[in-house]
Write a structure and sequence with these properties.
Strand order of the largest sheet: 2-1-3-4-5-11
Mean pLDDT: 89
Oligomer: single chain
CATH superfamily of the largest domain: Response regulator
Radius of gyration: 26 Å
Number of helices: 11
Distance between the termini: 68 Å
């Protein structure tokens, strides 16, 4: 395909009826001695025409001419190709909400790819971003470094009270919905398959699960609690294999709750391969919003959680309302959870 035609400063000057020297001064950040209206008009026209050579100083552009962009960063070790259903839908909600305001999103990188030098290159003083959104839980040291270059930050699915804004799902309510559903189905023996042990979300979900069981007069036996470092289908498979070593015991669970629906998929597949009928022999659920069933996973997982699209939309509203001023407070926004019944839970086996 032919290369797109580039536009020159001389062409910009002819189109606007000004000198090329004036255009050059403005686009290199010169304000002294230049009429403010002319300065802004040249910037607006240059950006509209797509003029952006290496020397063009966006940080010097007037606010009305700056590109409308919000940067987003993934927690380590996530990458764009491993975001999955949950974070992919968060991004969809964020992007569509910003698009309605004539703004867009820009991926800046993952937490473990952004050292201090790179952050300062991406976010120099006077940068044009309208704020940043974090997908998932990052380390405090990374967040501290990030706040040195930008204070308008919203964390999604993580909370940093007094440090930045956050948008969370109601984890206690979500686990209460799942336990109540399974209790009403006659289940009294439960197990837990956990993952992402280094993150606060795992502890929040496990604590909420144990509290919901306690309210029902039940407890979670340590023997049937398996916790792994990651939280994908492979970990669900591994955790299920560990539980199968106890399968001959009379107190073996009739229902398993998993840290997320990916682990639930792996566990359901493992038990099915071992000859168990899901949910007739064993109910399995995930503590987040299930994705649509895939060809390799024909059963839709029962899950509970907050719509990730709504999380992204809420993050967009918070980041656009943030000024980054020292005197501004921070909001911890919690969205309601919902129970999504699939085909992996049912009445307890007699």
């Amino acid at each position: 395909m032919p290369r797109p035609r580039t536009i020159s400063q001389a062409q910009l000057a002819r189109e606007m009826g000004v000198s090329q020297a004036l255009v050059s001064l403005v686009l290199n950040g010169r304000k002294s001695g230049i009429n403010p209206g002319t300065y802004e008009r040249i910037w607006a026209h240059a950006i509209k025409r797509g003029y952006h050579p290496k020397g063009m100083q966006f940080a010097a552009s007037p606010t009305s001419s700056q590109p409308g962009q919000v940067g987003y960063i993934l927690r380590a070790p996530m990458r764009l190709n491993t975001m999955g259903f949950f974070y992919g839908n968060i991004h969809h909600g964020l992007h569509t909400a910003l698009e309605a305001q004539n703004l867009t999103t820009v991926f800046l990188g993952s937490e473990d790819q952004l050292d201090s030098d790179r952050l300062h290159r991406l976010l120099p003083a006077g940068h044009h971003y309208r704020g940043l959104v974090l997908f998932g839980e990052v380390t405090r040291s990374f967040l501290s470094g990030l706040r040195q270059v930008e204070r308008r930050i919203v964390a999604v699915s993580a909370r940093y009270t007094g440090v930045c804004h956050s948008v969370m799902g109601d984890e206690p309510a979500a686990l209460e919905l799942l336990v109540r559903h399974l209790y009403e189905c006659g289940h009294r023996r439960f197990g837990w398959l956990g993952g992402n042990t280094g993150l606060g979300r795992h502890e929040a979900r496990l604590t909420a699960f144990q509290a919901a069981l306690a309210r029902a007069g039940l407890a979670l036996p340590p023997r049937y609690t398996v916790v792994l470092a990651e939280a994908d289908r492979e970990e669900g498979t591994e955790a299920a294999h560990r539980l199968l070593t106890h399968v001959g015991r009379k107190d073996f669970p009739t229902a398993l709750l998993c840290y997320n629906c990916l682990m639930a998929e792996g566990a359901a597949r493992t038990f099915a391969h071992a000859g168990w009928k899901i949910p007739a022999d064993l109910s399995i659920a995930g503590a987040d919003t299930p994705r649509p069933p895939q060809p390799a996973e024909p059963l839709r997982i029962t899950g509970t959680g907050t719509d990730p699209v709504q999380l992204g939309q809420a993050a967009a509203r918070l980041v656009l309302a943030s000024t980054g001023a020292e005197e501004d407070g921070f909001h911890d926004l919690m969205l309601p959870a919902r129970l999504i019944l699939g085909e992996t839970t049912g009445p307890a086996k007699a």
